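Take the subject:
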Amino acid sequence: MTVFEATAVPGEAPPPDSVSPRDSSADAPTSVARLNATIRDFVAQWGTVWVEGEITSWNQRAGNVFARMKDGRSDAQISLRIWSSVRARIPSDLGVGDHVVAAVKADYFVKAGDFSFQVSAMKHVGLGDQLERLERLRAQLRAEGLFDPSRKKPLPFLPHQIGLITGEKSDAEKDVHRNAELRWPQVRFRTEYAAVQGDRCVPETLAALKRLDADPDVDVIIIARGGGDPQTLLGFSDERLVRAVAAAATPVVSAIGHENDHPLLDDVADLRASTPTDAAKRVVPDVGEQRALIAQLRARATTRLTQRVSHDLAQLAQLRSRPVLRSPDPIIDSRAQEVLLLSARGRDSVARRLDTAGRTTSELRASLRALSPAATLARGYAIAHLENGTILRDAADAPAGTALTITVDRGSVAARSDGEVSEGA
């Protein structure tokens, strides 16, 4: 709770009928009435305090109002009583969800032991004050990079399932469903209802966002509500909600209010739609447009293919019209005689080379035969070999009993030396 001004006047001494801890004991306890009276007299000295908060409960009974106010940044709450005389002096449009400043004085009801605050004045928080706080928060979030376009996730071309967070039976829900189904009749939704204003707006929207973001079948999430005054749209500038949307793994579309409404959710969302109807149109493709696009692409492909085939046929006809391809026989006939002449020349050249090589081979064979030991053997000579293969050149090398091999023109025979030596001729 934010305290703007306090006018408490501390008492110098408790009233005579008040009680203090030293005035009571287990043997001499004080009464409940005296204790309550002491509390009443004590809190009565606090005076009037100006306090800021959000109205969370507003019940009218016989002209009086019994309400509750909560702090905007914590769960702290107080009870308020507005008597009919004061109710006539404060704005008539006050109610649950309003952000107000009130002049309150502590009041302790002795009979029931209830503690509450009596309201002597109450007013809406000035819009300028709220906008100033929002702009400070906007600057802080921008400095952290939460508005950076590079971190925004692209939307799927055709989502299999759309997550929708909106008020139950709201016009925003009807607008999104109707326009999405007109564009793509097979579109599927998973809708999570949440309060779209008041103290339940932020926690219920956060819970719905968490459920949808955890569903793998949901490809995109739309947060939608109809238009409203800046006071009713404050929940969609709440820092907790804005940071949760920035941290979501699923792309989020903000469709809050009308074109001129600009909560912080618009800046951090992956896509800002001007209205719920605009969100449906930007999330779901138009089936008619897609069919027309496919027809257009088919026509382009047909035209390009027809042009390519026609071009290739024209090139083929042009090639076939050339003399060499139109009538190739004269060219073949004119070259045939040349091929025959070259073939004859080649055969004659090969024959001459073969004859020359044959004669050269015969001459070499005759020379080889004349020099060959085989020719000598053919004339009746023989060659004697010792057992180790050495040619016997001296009879002294073959004493009696030496085994010899005698090679003649046609084969070899075994012999043994008798040791006799004859004189050569």
Q: What stands out?
A: The chain has twelve helices and 14 strands. Residues 1-16 have pLDDT under 50 and may be disordered.
